[in-house]
Amino acid sequence: MGDLFGWRVPLDYGSPRVELRHIEEDVALIDFTFMTLLRVEGADRHDYLNRRLSQKTLGMCEGDGCRAALLDAGGKMEADLEVFARNDDFLLLAPPFEGDALLNRLDQYVFSEDCRFTDITAEAPLFALVGPRWRQVLETLQAEPPLTPPRYWSGARAHGENLELFLSAHIPQGCFIRGDDVGMAGLLWGLRDAIEGVGGALAGWSAFDAWRIMRRRPWWGSDLDHDTIPLEAGLRDALHFDKGCYPGQETIARISNLGHPARQLVAVEYAGATEVPVGTELTTADGRKAGRLTSATTLLPRRATLGLAMVKWPLRQPGTELHAGDCVFKVLPAKESP
Hints:
- It is a single chain.
- This protein is α+β, with helices and mostly antiparallel strands.
- It folds into 3 domains: 2-33 and 125-212, Probable tRNA modification gtpase trme, domain 1 (Gyrase A, domain 2, 2-Layer Sandwich); 36-122, Alpha-Beta Plaits; 262-338, Beta Barrel (Elongation Factor Tu (Ef-tu), domain 3), CATH 2.40.30.110.
- It has helices at residues 16-25, 45-52, 99-107, 134-140, 184-197, 205-214, 249-258; strands at 2-4, 7-9, 28-31, 36-41, 65-71, 77-85, 90-94, 116-119, 126-130, 152-156, 162-166, 174-178, 201-202, 263-270, 281-283, 289-297, 305-312, 321-324, 327-331.
- The strands form 4 sheets. The chain has a 6-stranded mixed sheet.
- Strand 18 (321-324) and strand 19 form a beta hairpin.
- The protein is globular, with a radius of gyration of 20 Å.
- The two termini are 29 Å apart.
């Protein structure tokens, strides 16, 4: 067990490298109960969220979903969100430690609108199926979402437990899965058996963290924080460029139309297994400040340290050397995330 942004979470179940291999080759079940989940109700919820968030929520129907950001007036992120539409409400999925603060930030500008926010994080655990065989697990569970599932789906498996599935930008090969209190014990047993049946296993945060770093997936609290502008982290999928006004829109439009951000999140690699602490300041060869290391992992098939770093725009080019003490990282070429 270990600490993750104030939550106690399973870091591993004995062998992070084996768990990472299951994520890459089979499927793994990962505990994401620490994620924040808010319910948004009220007749004005579409319009209110559309005016507050960086993505378009007007016209979203049951099953639709999108990534979005809550920005301040200067275009900096106050939260990294995913919005999922249900029949009578929205669900907002956010990284850990955001609960009360996020609810208050969203609620403070509700005046005459019919829009209400409730933190439902504690109502039921949230898990993730991650890996190429995630659909086989659902088949074994006798859950039957469409062949091309929507971003959000709910239904019942054969034993009667209700399931909710969330197709998330954080998990390009898998889904979040949530049950209900009544059938949770049966669901957990079913998940365990189904995962073992397709060659998978449990995995902890260490393996998932390595997997998402390898795929250049930024995470709130590590690579994203209250000083981040979404374009610095490449989060164009969280932005809508012609839906109308929202807080921070002027900054986003100015950067998009007239130039580029001052910083850029890049993948970096050091040809050694020395553990470089996250947050380490990076410099150029002549000692000038370059940025900082935001995430790092040594769970690789080769002797190396792979990380993400927020660096000054001119230093984003592949091959650029960035120093962290005696360790020399090189910026890697950009690649499409699967």
